[in-house]
Amino acid sequence: MQLPESQVAVLEAADADTDRSITDIARVADLKPETATQAAFALEERDLLAIDEHVEETVELTDEGERYVGEGLPELRLYKAALEAGGTDDGVPLGEVIEDAGLTGEAVDIALANFARKGYGSVDSGQVTVDPNARPDRDDELLALETLSIGNSVDDSDVLDSLEDRGLIDRSESTDRRITLTDDGVTALMEGVETAETVDQLTPELLTSGEWEDVEFSSYNVDASASAIQSGRKHPLRQMVDRVKDVLVGMGFQEMQGPTVDADFWINDCLFMPQDHPARTHWDRFALDDPQKIDDLPADLVERVETAHREGVGEDGEGYNSPWDEEFARQLALRGHTTSLTARHLAGEAMGDLEPPQRFFSVEKAYRNDTLDATHLLEFFQIEGWVMAEELSVPDLFGTFREFYEQFGITDLEFKPHYNPYTEPSFELFGRHPETDELIEIGNSGIFRQEMLEPLGVDCDVMAWGLAGERLMMLATGAEDIRDVHGTLVDLDYLRTEEVLY
Amino acid sequence: MPVVTVDPDELRQLTGMDRDDDQLREDLFELGVEFEGWTEDEEFELEFAPDRLDRLSVEGIARSLRYHYGEDRGVYIPSTNSAEWTIDVTSPPAERPYVTGAIVRGLDLNDEALESLIQIQEKLHATMGRQRVKGAIGVHDLTMLKGAPATEGATKSITYSSTDPDEESFVPLESNEEMTPREVTDRHHMGAEYADLVEELDRYPAIYDDMGLFSFPPVINGKRTEVTGDSRDLLIEMTGTDQWTIDHMCNIVCYSLSARGGTLERVDVSYDGDAPGEYAGQTLDRPLFETKTKTVAHDRIESIIGTEFSQDEVIDCLERAGLDGTHEMENDSDKYDVEIPPYRVDVLHPMDVIDDIGRAYGFNELPREYPDISTVGGRHERSRLEDATRDALVALGFEDLLNFYMINEVENYRRMNLDQADDALGGGQPVSIMEPYSEEYTMLRTWALPSIMMVLENNTHRAYPQHLAEIGLAAVKDETENTNVAEHRTVAGAIAEAEASYDDARARLQVLARGFNKDLETPATEHPGFISGRTAEIRFDGEKAGVIGELHPEVLVEHDMEVPVSAFEFRLDALQ
Fold this sequence. Notes:
The structure holds two protein chains of two kinds.
Chain A: E1 2-4, H1 5-13, E2 20-21, H2 22-29, H3 33-45, E3 49-61, H4 63-71, H5 74-84, E4 92-93, H6 94-101, H7 106-117, E5 121-124, E6 127-130, H8 140-149, H9 157-165, E7 169-181, H10 183-191, E8 194-199, H11 204-209, E9 215-217, H12 236-250, E10 254-255, E11 261-263, H13 264-267, E12 286-290, H14 299-311, H15 326-330, E13 332-334, H16 339-346, E14 358-367, E15 379-389, H17 394-406, E16 414-420, E17 423-432, E18 439-448, H18 450-456, E19 461-468, H19 469-477, H20 492-497
Parallel strand pairs in A: 1-8, 8-9, 10-14
Antiparallel strand pairs in A: 2-7, 3-7, 4-6, 5-6, 11-13, 12-13, 14-15, 15-19, 16-17, 17-18, 18-19
Helix pairs in contact in A: 1-2, 1-3, 2-3, 4-8, 5-6, 5-7, 8-9, 14-18
Chain B: E1 3-6, H1 8-15, H2 21-31, E2 34-38, E3 44-47, H3 58-69, E4 80-89, E5 98-105, H4 111-126, E6 135-141, E7 156-163, H5 181-187, E8 204-209, E9 212-216, E10 220-221, E11 234-240, H6 243-259, E12 263-271, E13 283-286, E14 292-297, H7 298-305, H8 311-320, E15 324-330, E16 333-340, H9 350-361, H10 381-395, E17 399-400, E18 406-407, H11 409-412, E19 432-433, E20 443-444, H12 449-458, E21 466-477, E22 485-496, H13 502-515, E23 520-521, E24 530-540, E25 543-551, H14 553-558, E26 565-571
Parallel strand pairs in B: 4-7, 4-12, 17-21
Antiparallel strand pairs in B: 1-3, 2-3, 5-11, 5-12, 6-11, 7-8, 8-9, 9-10, 12-13, 14-16, 15-16, 18-20, 21-22, 22-26, 23-24, 24-25, 25-26
């Protein structure tokens, strides 16, 4: 019979007549106890060994317990001091007795609590009275402590329980395994047992030569940490962006594409944003210094847009009482929202004229000269979506958002009527944070105004919505400061340890 | 978004409704006015969207609440007495030709009312008034004005005109010193704040009565006509660059003061023959309390709001919104002529009326339906290519980065050993940002390796190897483009570790090229950011696409790096 080295050693260390502890076996076999145990179990499976298990309780004194063996239990010291002060008949003042007993701090409370419990006397209105018949020399707990301190065992489980409650002893259980050789084991030893070869590494040679059949593989500590490696992974915000794109594609939306640097005409004028709107001052946007202007804008569209701004659209429409200048519209800027892509698509500039129905989206960066804080960066991902159909209603808008946000665990949507220059009706979207249950703003939406659609040549309804991707990510992952996530200040440790998002 | 502070006790008093603070906050939320917090004086701080500028005061919010509660219905127009005063307009600055006004009598201005009057002026200046450029408000104690009629039987008058900045002087508010208009803009603490509104003008705007100059719009009023708690009768004047705008700002102020118990009195605005366009020689009767009418189709109301309405329901919603509606039949279809009160500045199109109907009905009462239309979804080819490339980089062990498009010249060029004149990847004329807010973001990056180097620099305390990659935007100025900017997506990867070498970078680039079925060649080249002799041009299928090499020790030391870095960068579209 061939057995691994450790099993051979354990088998040889065992005896058929005397049961031996694992510790003894390990010592004789020159093995670590855990290796010996493992080998013994393997041998038991082969019926070569019998293992007899029983659970043993070990009781050890705590530091406090050790101390009381020397100086006596606090309640006994209190008893003794009160007895000496003459507290048998009438009470004696508690303060004096405590001082006489040399008790301070915690020990005072411990003494008082156990004094009464054990019937050594009573404390009433600051007077201590002792029971002269009490037998402090027969105190179960003290006797048990003394017994334990010299290494003997105590069987009275009530006393042990109360000592454990007082934190004077630690009890632990250990399994004692005793081993005897079975008849099969004896036979095997008599017939002869050989040591099988163990190898650390399975090699190509072992595999091709067939030697692997005769070797035993050494055991690893499979629970230990391995050496650190770096893995490639997608940026957490990018994972979020991908997830959003998946959801929107699944809902039938097609992705838009277009310039990041664009003329104000496409960013603002086509959206019926008056040129003197506060958001169009340079403080809010990133206008370009060089180059400054777009070369060409579609002339007929410029004319229609200007007319809408000046006069409105429809029979009794009105325009803004604001200046409008084509040169202003030609100024270049980093887009403040990706709605510029929507304007280009609706105008037929991006993919030619679009007939209803259509659904489009983009999840791309927009740029705003905002104050930097935990939730605002100068560059952010805007999620933009729009739907074009012959007729659309507010319930259509609500239903679309409900579907979208449900994918991210955000339910209980509320819609607050709002104002945007380019949509009417307009709604701010609020949703419940899946973890904090707080009602938070999660987007902005509406039905595009006629003053926007008519110049772009769209004669059906279009509804749209947008929100910051970072906001959705912070909601979904609990990230607290967006500056740690997006940009060159990112901590690689964050990228390496952030939970994967799917 | 505008924020106004409002005393809840004032709201209860002006609405006549005994709602506690919590109820008021709920009522306001339903109006779309959000409670932002308490002020130190225990007043509500309220925020709302900038369409309903008639709510910029406690009186305006109270009016909206009364409609919301059903206490008021339909259009309300306060009565006005006939004009006793005229504003003569004679040679005002051409840049600021318009004026309007009104008189309010019999006011009892307690502290709250005075505070509200100041607040509404500030808020209107900040919104419709476009920081006083488009419209500026002046409120004066009428009893301090002397405007004797020039001839028997004529009305009293003041004159809106212009003055040489240095000739005349007056005592401005919050001062005891006579100053010329130029002195006011030079050294008066409030005047200096608005100096830029007039400094380009040859002659400054000025308003006179019989005693002389008393107001210097849009900068500051004179001390003589200062409004105090004792003022009973007020003159309101507004000057600006647009007549409609100041007329409507004036309406909002008149409605507020009327709600405070004032009696409104009309003012004639008499333009001289030199006034621009349609106003030349005209006399305007102000305030402009005329309603306007929008015609709204019943079908459109139902199709947008998405539910059925009876005619009575439509009329009821209109009246609860402070509008009046009259049902009409036109070509067999139901329509409503809707009358809009003069304080509403946000109603441009019938859709704005439908929005009001929806708000009165309660948008949150509506069902939620997924639109019954069928479309096919899909990703753009460009974004699919970007994703596939990113997946390949990640599979090669690169940690994906997400850096900014905006950068500065120092990071983009100098710290990379590069000059914008260099004919090398990253060289080229920058697209620069106007009046940059921060020195860190002054241009768009021309390549992505500088951003990756910044990340490496910020993470020298983290474990190596650091294999970092990014796919993102880069741009250069390019006059052949319509926008004069050539934007492209760029792919950059860097290997930072003790034994990083050219071979490490090329090994990975080979895998990428093979995956996208590109024939890779790397003929030697020079790039100031890389070590000479260890730098190559990246060519895919013979086309120049980017650069690969070991970064120059100067660049590494500049970025506090103590390990070598090999890197590559190329245009994403070269993998197409």
